[in-house]
Amino acid sequence: MLHQRKGVLMETVGPPIRRGSREERREATVRALAAGDEAGCAYCGQPLPPIPRQGGRPTPYCPADPERYGRWGAKVITCAMLDEQREIWVTVYGPDQPMTQLDTRALDEQLGSALSALEPLHAELSALRTHVADQTAAALKAREEAEAARDEALEQARAANAERAHAVAAAEEARAAEEAAKHQSEVDRAERDAALENASAARKAQEAALAVRDEAENNRQRALEQAASAHDRVTALQREISALRATAVEDLEQARRTAAEAQQELRASLTAEHESRMREQQQRLREQAAEADDRVRSVQVAADQRVAEAAAQLSQATKTYAETLAPLHAELGELRARVSAQEAELEELHRLREAEKAEKAEQPEEAE
């Protein structure tokens, strides 16, 4: 049911169930908020948002929302206000008094119509209950029969299992006997094979021994032949070495004689060449010395000429310097004479000033 109050469309619902006292509900909500658990409003029970991280005072009621309950004058109706008003009503009129008038006759009529509407449903439920009871009885009987058949089948299965176990045991014994016989046969076969292998191995060993003996005899014969051949070859090599040694001695003597002759010829040719080179070098040195003497003489002549020219230039410069300094000396003498005269004049002036000062100093004394 919806109604409109002061322009706000709201849903009309009954008050929430009152659970304990107002202080108990407020304390439980605040405790849950402080512990970080899910807490509900102390009035309507709706979940409350957790306390923000920046802190703040926890409130046990929903925040104010004018679109939820509307306004009462200038105030917004909140859960805290409704909880307080309900506690005031309970304190004044008691917890069993309704907060609104109730139309009992309308309620009776509504209940009568509801019961008349429920009569067919009640009859249907009775018929359904009877049918369920019949079906349950039939199911119980079928279950008992099935249990009896199951017990009989279990007995038959136990007997079959016993017979199967006996047959399995007999089969195991037969299999064990067969395995033992097979094992004995395999042992006999293995012994026979081992005997055959031993005989074959002995035969092979005998053949190998004979082959080794023949091989050793052949090796001995080959060794004797190789020794004889080696002795013959050594003898031939010794003869060849003796012949080569004699030839080498002769070649060495010939090489020594040839080397001595070559050294003599080389020494003679080197001596002649050295003497020729020395003569040529001495001739070149004489020519170079003569050329050097000529260059020295020419340089000395040029130097003497330059010295003479420099001496003439020096004498000319000295003469020119003397001629240039003569007027300067005359002027210097005149300047010195002038300076002497001026100094004499200055001394005279100084003497006169001193005399004037002395006279001026004496005049005040006479006046006194």
Automatic annotation (TrEMBL):
Residues 212-223, 272-297 have a biased composition (Basic and acidic residues). Residues 149-190, 207-230, 263-297 are annotated as: Disordered. Residues 332-359 form a coiled coil. The keyword Signal does not apply. The keyword Coiled coil applies. Keywords: Coiled coil. This is Chromosome segregation ATPase. It comes from Amycolatopsis echigonensis.
